[in-house]
């Protein structure tokens, strides 16, 4: 299949941006070596904003091999996050995103409930504005705003 290799490379590159530590389990299998080599080649050209170089840890869960090294990397990363205020910022970002997601779901649910009560509109922006105005008026009357 033409182009599949490029897609896989793109997905793997995304791992380097998302993960703080990469764990390749079942490292005792011969085919795993190729994956580790590919990840290490991508690792060479990537660093996070904090300067953390994403480690690639090979483990064998059934024997426990590599688990101690993994634990050491986890402790190092936590220490880096705490010393650079990164952990606090990540928690604040996570909290903000969670609050906004909850608000979005609640407003969406309200909009669905109100949609059928609207007069027919040709302009979807006007319809959205009507729903939002109803939402605002309803919450102001109830003392929520």
How would you describe this structure in keywords?
5 helices, about 140 residues, 2 strands, two-stranded parallel sheet, 2 domains, mainly alpha
Describe the structure.
- By secondary structure, the protein is mostly helical.
- It folds into two domains: about 5-85, no CATH class; about 85-140, no CATH class.
- It has five helices and two strands.
- Strands 1-2 form a two-stranded parallel ribbon.
- Helix 4 (about 85-115) crosses helix 5.
- It is elongated.
- The tally of domains stands at 2
Output the number of helix runs: 5
Helical percentage: 55-70%
* Approximate strand percentage: under 5%
End-to-end C-alpha gap: 57 Å
Sequence stretches where pLDDT stays below 50 over 5 or more residues: none
Radius of gyration: 24 Å
Strand order of the largest sheet: 1-2
Compute the number of strand runs: 2
Mean pLDDT: 82
Mass-distribution shape: elongated
Order of helices and strands: HEHEHHH
| Biggest pleated-sheet summary | 2 strands, parallel
Summarize the model shown.
The protein is mainly α and 145 residues long. The chain has 5 helices and 2 strands; from the N terminus they run H-E-H-E-H-H-H.
